[in-house]
Amino acid sequence: MVTILTDEQIAALTVDERIALIYRIEQTLPDEIPNPLPEWHLKLIEERRAEAEANPGVGRPWREVLDSIRSRRKR
Question: Is the dihedral of CA 2, 18, 62, 41 positive or negative?
Fold first, then answer.
């Protein structure tokens, strides 16, 4: 039987309980997890990483962008 926890139920757990849950889930994963990404995704990631490294200082950290989006949604 599978039990699905809602976001609210997970949030209600203590930090220790959430860590224990993560550990229990991790123990059920196989040793070798196949890469679900298609090859073209990996190539695109490599290209974008190289572009970012070639142009340091361009762009913004993802956390900053996410915070900006969230603040606009609250208006």
Answer: negative
